[in-house]
Amino acid sequence: MWLSYLEKLLQAFPFFLKGLWMTVAVSGLSLVGGTLLGFAAGIVRASRVRILGSILFAYVDFMRGTPFLVQVFIIFFILPEWGLHLSAFKAAVLSLTLYAAAYICEIVYGGIAAVPSGQMEAAKASGLTWVQRMRYVILPQAMKTILPPLVGQYVLLIKDSSVVSVIGVTDVTRVGWFTVQRIPEGLMVFGLVGLLYFAVCYPLIRLSNALEKKMRAEEPGGL
């Protein structure tokens, strides 16, 4: 019985690879967009412009305080009622991008806030503009704090991308659901799904751990 299931699973493996490619495509596009949007939002929030800061604070709280599944449904099912029709793929990328941006905004804002205030004051006294201060003084120092949790967040967001299968995106999770209908051995099927996610996420996990170790080593008294 198990050998029969395994044979069927091997026959379906090319479909799992296609699903994995879709997962990588959705996650990759979303992480690029989320990183750019999140960095911009984090920098703007650190600028302490009250109105923009309040808007970003509300946005971040909403995105972090509501289930990602609800956000996907809003974009895919509610926006068409307002005239904005998106394919499942585009809705998945947009929803994951906005979701990623909220968390990355907080990471960037926290990294900037961790830079001693004296650095900004010294740069300001040197006659640098705000943009120059951020580019040449603050962000290079903040990146040491930002990078490890940022890479860790990438891992979480890749795993969260499995949610978009509910709106018809044929990612590796959805392929798993299709396959388990033909191969009634859920442990085997979703074990393979888990291994494929692990293959994508593990290099990022190792990178995150390496960055954290490097940061600790560079701290005064670090080992």
From TrEMBL:
Keyword Secreted belongs to the record: no
Membrane topology value: Multi-pass membrane protein
All residue ranges annotated as the ABC transmembrane type-1 domain in the record: 20-208
Matches recorded under SUPFAM superfamilies: MetI-like (SSF161098)
Localization annotation: Cell inner membrane; Cell membrane
GO molecular function: transmembrane transporter activity
UniProt keyword Secreted, yes or no: no
Listed InterPro entries: AA_ABC_transptr_permease_3TM, ArtM/GltK/GlnP/TcyL/YhdX-like, MetI-like, MetI-like_sf
Membrane-crossing segments per the record: 20-44, 56-79, 91-115, 136-156, 187-205
Keywords, in A-Z order: Cell membrane, Membrane, Transmembrane, Transmembrane helix, Transport
One Pfam family matching this protein: BPD_transp_1
Main location: membrane
GO terms under biological process: amino acid transport
An annotated GO cellular component: ATP-binding cassette (ABC) transporter complex
Gene3D superfamilies cross-referenced by the UniProt entry: MetI-like
Domain of life of the native organism: Bacteria
Family membership: Belongs to the binding-protein-dependent transport system permease family. HisMQ subfamily.
NCBIfam families linked to this entry: HEQRo_perm_3TM (TIGR01726)
Descriptive protein name: Amino acid ABC transporter permease
Organism: Desulfacinum infernum
